[in-house]
Batch of 2 targets.
Target 1
Amino acid sequence: MRPIAICGALILAWLVGPASAQTPPAAPARTDAISLMGTPALPPGFKAFPYVNPNAPKGGHVTLSVVGGFDSFNPFIIRGTPAAGLPLVWDTLLTPSDNEPSTAYADLARSVSVSPDGRTVTFVLHKRARFNDGTPVTAADVAWTFNMLRAHGQPLYASYYAAVRSVSVQGEQTVVFHLRAGANRELPLILGQLQVLPEHWWKGRDFSAPLTVPPLGSGPYRIESFALGRSVTYARVKNYWARNLPSAKGLYNFGHIRYEYFRDPTVALQAFKAGQIDFRQENIAKNWATAYNFPAVKRGLVKLWAVRHHLPTGMQGFAMNTRRAVFHDPRVREAMVLAFDFQWMNKTLFYGSYTRTQSYFSNSDLASSGIPKGVELALLKPYRSQLPPALFTKPYTLPVTSGSGNNNKELLRAYRLLQAAGWRVKNRKLVNAAGRQMSFEILLDDPAFTRVALPYVQTLKHLGIAVKVRLIDPAQYQHRMDAFDYDMTVGLFGESDSPGNEQRNFWTCRAAKTDGSQNLMGICSPVVDALVNRVINAPNRPALLAATHALDRVLLWGWYIVPQWHLDKFWLAYWNIFGHPKMPIRNGFDINDWWVDPALAARTNAARHSGG
């Protein structure tokens, strides 16, 4: 029912292979849970996740904000902009744990099993599983959903499901996925995240088109009302079929969840301050440092919470589109990285809040460091002639400036690289052999990033480069992203504890040529493709670590992105109407296990509605 992060290297009993004659028979494999990291922490038959309040009160109305707009209730296709909150409408076969990395428990499926040879994955559904019109959720619905997503869904589905040969229905509740030879072992968990759609409801509708009527689901909420592009309200399903399952107990407590859309993030913040929005996750350091000192905070009506998390933070940065000639040469791309003065920005713009990101797998043991050794070195040696020599002899490092705004040393290094790539300064312009000035555009959809882009533009101007910043609306931005119609943009690549199939959609040659993929930089390298396959097919955790370190290192030394920053906290601001569990969790927080506290809500709402 909650989206499960795409992950890798699934660890199940079937991976170990048959026991020898001297080995005692293994205990029966668990079928109610699977884990990428070992044994699931919760025992069979557990009553609820330990971090939730199973007796949390139900009810109350919560309003959240979204910047942008929406024109569709179909989040599975490339066309249209889907509404926020749609994952609440459909249940998944398995549901993740917020406190265990890469672990999922029974949900729509009461069991999951893998054949000893790893060639089939079988899900058996709960007999009482129902869509919200009362019709049963069947194995046929699962198979139909899978086939529709692979045929008509976003390109990522074809990539994720590439190793599935076929799916078959064996009775009302049993569905079997047949895997290709050599399929990566993460597939049971990937398949477990499938949001199952009702075939009967979609009959006669064009699945590949944006949807403008509320869809039928099996999840804890249904769409009660909406105004396209402006707001959407979800109502809790009172007779929700899974309300007493361990995967739902203590979760989904709000009676109504409303998403209000704003065209401008500043207006959204002001709406929160005015009491029109109940909960806000802040992502701008300046706002967190300066915008939350209004009277309601001082009176305790609004609470602020910087909550620590222990999640991989992936990579965020200015992504350079290598499909464009200006960024073909890696020396040019490296020069772009050297010109970015993170220390000045962090000090001046972000109040020292952030840590510089130096890995595509930051904040995790998957991040590369030092120089390659051992198994990682052995993986890279066959490709030595195709890789920069420095990759084998020097640690990947990013420049560290004084933060004073004077980064002349780094700019000089950048200019030498540009010279080596055939560029020269003439009349204060960086020109090529044909006399054409280097120029490109940074495409954005979030005004907050103009604060970062504009100083960077000024720095690049010192090198004689003409750069423009263009801010467009989210719908137009998404269209241009899908068509790779940009020079440079902000790229965000989230990672899990166990990377897997999603890496194909991020970095491979096939993804570079597939509209709508997440290969924003157009990376197409036989070495990267080979290492992605190594990551996906790693036989154990040590092998996964070595392959991911190697992949990370090759990506970094390709200079495809100007790394920005990450934060190991979530900044939360909310009106004091909520109760929430006190147990710290690995994910930091999950709004789905919060509830409206009637007594707190009565006091706070009385104060804010009276102007307090």
Target 2
Amino acid sequence: MAFDGASGPDEYSALAAGAACAPAVYIARISLRTGKEIRGPIDPRELLVQSHRDRHPADIAVQFLASRLVQFTGHDRAGWQLMRRINRLGRLLAQAMGGLTGSTAVERGVKHLIGVPDTQDYFRFRPATPLGNRAVARRLERLRRMARARLRRRGATPRLQLLVTGATGFVGQEILARAAEDARIARVVCVLRPETVRDRKTGAVMATYTPAQRGARLLRRLRISGASARKFRFVEGDIEQPGLGIRPAVAARLQTALTHVIHAAASVSFDDPYAASYRANVLGNRHALAFSLGCQSAAGSAFVAHLAIETSYIHGRTKPAIAQETAFVFPRNFYNNYYELTKAMAAIDTDRFMIERGLRVVQLLPSIIIGNSRTGNNRGDTKVVNAPVNAFGRAKQIIDHVGRGITGVPKAWLLARMAESFPGDPSAELNLVPIDRVVAGILAALTAPEAIGQHIHLASDDRIRSDVMARIATDEIGVDIRLTDPTLFRTVAAPMRSRALHTLNEPKLARAAAKLTAVFSAYGEWGQPIHDVGNDVRILGLSLRRPNIEHAFRMLCRHNRYVQQFGKIRDADEIARREAVWSAAIDRIEHTTGREVASIPPALFAHLLARAIDTTTFTAARSHR
């Protein structure tokens, strides 16, 4: 882990006191002319890639040309070089015009006219510590030694006691399901808020559930019962409150008993506003770190380590450089959304707690998490990659319904042309990782003291391109997905599509399409980061053979189609029931065919599934009961 700079904890505390959620607490603006910091507030929007593109027709044209060059050459570097050369030529032209007229105003005017960015500054992260790399390394090794000693005291059967935040989330549920089967884990305490259920139309309160009631429902959905269920305890709390909102008496008992805190709670909505992302991802993280520090320093503490679940996308738009596990710098090409930005800010807080305050921390950085690599099961998740898959499926259903009559055929054709297009450069690569790989890494880290002080990417070395995702989704959903250049899509096609869908009286489809454009047009661009991997194998001992991402994405499409009906099935209990039936059907299909189910062509899979499941009731077929 590399650190540079000179600001330390005192400066950090002063900044934090002055502006509670300001990016300037974590990020400095540096003058290109003087090399010194430019003091003052930083607007969070400045840190997103959206604020640095599509500002001028010439800028749009250059991005489009660079995209075509990348497609022709197959190398992102060619696109970056083209954009740099064009910008250099534009700056030289502006300087020449300024020199001829003797006016800097003319130079700036020419730059504005031809769309050349007039950059005067850049951003960099404030360092976590003023210490040098050697001093940091010594501190981290000391923390590892302490963790080894704590684990040795617990013997060959350590009987670990965990506290988990975010237990009702996608990752949290999978942690609970695997912890129930893990003989090393004796107790899991989950922090939950009470839940109030309101009528969607009137807002009237229909029911209120305590954390214990919510936990009991969660265990039923996860099919955890008997002795395994007795491992779990659910306490009231809120990550956005100091002390995680846990009552002091309860917290005091936990702090002497817990061996680990797994902070898995986060807002993973790519379109959340900055304030909401900050509260969930930065403030919640800070409260979890402080709670763990209290556990570690308590008299008679059994505490081993805090596990921070971050994201590999804290590296932002780093291309053409590789996003390394050992380095963390502000991305030259900014962040795609506030989720990435606030998770990066939270990672800086984590480094500060570890190095300056001596908290033993493991930092685990998953990439974009999808369902189980074999079944696609995702506990009902509808976010991130699930969202466009479900949108395409719903669009197909609408098109099929509209196109049944003769008069509906033209409308169906128009809807298909608009709804089945998606902003994506064929060369754009996403790093997807199945949930089973992520949770295997989290649980392995519990007894891997060498992981303390390390950034560990839980990611794939088998990235998947936009054109491959479009082909698989076309095969599995039955839609003809057409990739459109993201720049032209955002600036030209998307506004036209929105107006046309409203004209065709499809406002819901228009809203869904607009949201998908806003969220995914950035991830569909060429120049996505390449994440270095290796610590998951070297340090955590995970299998060198990482999941087949094409197979995993295919099963995501099948799961969303058959189990969730493209997002129509929302009831968590029903999804849990259907996923159990689905898993059993996949077992039977693979046993009967002797093939991995993801390798079976869509039509044959549909035939085999219909023999295994009554698709009307989503129950096992009579012959398999």
